[in-house]
Amino acid sequence: MSDSTWKFSPTTTHGRLSTAEKAALPASAFAFPKTRKEPMTDATHVRDAMARFDQVGGVTEAERDLAFANLQTAARHFKIHMKETNWRQFGTASH
């Protein structure tokens, strides 16, 4: 299991992100920081990242391990309960 790299920034834009706003985010704001996929700047984005986790393509299992650790950290921060204990459980049951 990877150590989380996700960090909350109180100055980060929340809500719907424009392409420019997304591009301006630090890599630490994304579930998948290397590929900059699934930004997690608020609770809605964390829930969206959980819902789309199994749809993200072009990433390795190691990147999924890191993304799952990032999701767990962001979910705890935003007080979101995650039933999943492993990223392989995404797509097999509702959140």
In words, what does this structure look like?
There is one protein chain. By secondary structure, this protein is mostly helical. It has one domain (19-89). It has helices spanning 19-24, 43-52, 61-77; strands at residues 30-32, 37-39. The chain is globular and about 30 Å long.
Topology (SSEs and partners):
Layout (H helix, E strand, L loop, with lengths): L18 H6 L5 E3 L4 E3 L3 H10 L8 H17 L18
Antiparallel strand pairs: 1-2
Provide key terms for this protein.
3 helices, 95 residues, 35% helix, mainly alpha, two-stranded antiparallel ribbon
Summarize the structure.
The protein is mainly α.
Give the SSE order as H and E letters: HEEHH
Q: Quickly count the domains.
A: 1
User: What is the overall silhouette?
Assistant: globular
Distance between the termini: 21 Å
Mean pLDDT: 89
Rounded to an integer in angstroms, the radius of gyration calculated over CA atoms is: 12 Å
Question: If strands are numbered along the chain, what order do they take across the biggest sheet?
Answer: 1-2
Poorly predicted regions: none
* Biggest beta-sheet profile: 2 strands, antiparallel
Q: Helix/strand-derived class?
A: mainly alpha
Count of discrete alpha- or pi-helical segments spanning 4 or more residues: 3
Kindly state the percentage of residues in helix. 25-40%
